[in-house]
Write a structure and sequence with these properties.
alpha/beta; 7-stranded parallel beta sheet; 12 helices; about 40% helix
């Protein structure tokens, strides 16, 4: 779909990758970002270098600023809401800021969309954390990983919500508001409950973005701590595949509007956090990686795998980039830009 795109958090990891795609297609793009994240300025520099100084409009502002957001959304045909507080640990330390950024910020985006009168498409980047710790799900222990006993395809969108941690509550609040703005106001909203997204332009830290963090730490020979036994399993999704599903939802908005999708690598693209990821990274690095172990973190799911069949059926989407290929691409990018970290 051609038109005006407003990307909140557009200077971040996912945002800059999607903006790159939009600019390649010749779309009109407004990036709305407070530039607080590490790497945000580098991502903007990369986009400007590639497409020109005036290739996009930048509004340096916060999603808590309802008036500025309303002004930014006035002419938007598509709003992709990526801006947010992203770490569970940060939410525990400062729950008020977490609530204001994630819950109130998302409400501000939805209100800006509603009040624009243009009926824009709104895609919200939610999280698998809305399902909580999932302690009641039966898990089997295998030599290098945990596995679900009863969910061969992963967790479906119909699984019960259980907001756990301030972060889970604030993102879950945004998730439900986004869904309800479709029901109550007829706004064309789509909720993407995203699993572990990774890829180039990701400035991962220990508390968020574990795939990128492990790669950066390995390349820079920084200390790595594995919390728990490293057998925890995640379905990992390369950022280009995520951008594909955003495109599909926009193209098929008549089917996608009002829907919730679990989006990740699915049962096919999974890896355990260290027992399997460690050897893959050591192979790329060409040396052994020393790690230390820490206690399990509260609410850490032993397994999380998204059932992505709904997105496949309604949107015709399947991830394409395999785990080894995606991690290799990220590794090469980190290695060639190691002075940034």
């Amino acid at each position: 779909m051609s038109g005006n795109y407003l990307i909140t958090g557009g200077a971040g990891f996912i945002g800059s990758n999607y903006v790159n795609r939009l600019l390649q297609r010749g779309e009109r793009v407004t990036i709305y970002d407070n530039l607080s994240r590490a790497g945000a300025v580098r991502n903007l520099d990369w986009l400007r270098k590639k497409f020109g100084e005036n290739a996009f409009r930048l509004i340096q502002a916060d999603v808590r600023d309802a008036a500025t957001l309303q002004e930014a959304a006035k002419n938007a045909d598509v709003i992709l809401h990526l801006a947010g507080q992203v770490a569970v640990t940060t939410s525990v330390v400062d729950p008020r800021s977490d609530f204001e950024i994630n819950a109130l910020g998302t409400f501000n985006v939805l209100e800006a969309a509603r009040l624009s009168g243009r009926d824009p498409i709104v895609i919200y980047a939610s999280t698998n954390k809305v399902y909580g710790g999932m302690e009641e799900v039966k898990v089997q222990e295998l030599p290098s990983r945990y596995a679900y006993a009863d969910f061969p395809f992963g967790i479906p969108e119909t699984f019960g919500l259980d907001f756990h941690s301030p972060y889970g509550c604030s993102k879950g609040c945004g998730d439900q508001y986004t869904r309800d703005y479709s029901r109550i106001y007829g706004l064309r909203t789509v909720v993407m409950r995203q699993s572990c997204i990774y890829g180039t332009r990701q400035f991962g830290i220990e508390d968020q973005g574990w795939v990128a963090w492990f790669v950066i730490a390995a390349v820079k020979h920084l200390p790595i701590t594995i919390y728990g036994d490293g057998k925890q399993v995640r379905d990992v999704l390369f950022v280009e595949d995520l951008c594909d599903v955003y495109d599909r939802a926009i193209e098929r908005i008549d089917l996608a509007a009002g829907q919730v999708f679990n989006i990740g690598g699915g049962a096919e693209f999974t890896i355990s956090v260290w027992q399997e990821f460690g050897p893959l990274l050591e192979k790329l690095l060409g040396e052994k990686i020393p790690v230390k172990n820490g206690d399990w973190r509260p609410g850490d799911q032993k397994v999380y795998i998204s059932d992505i069949r709904k997105a496949e059926q309604l949107l015709g989407w399947r991830p394409k980039v395999g785990v080894e290929e995606g991690v290799r691409r990220l590794f090469e990018w980190v290695k060639s830009n190691r002075n940034w970290f």
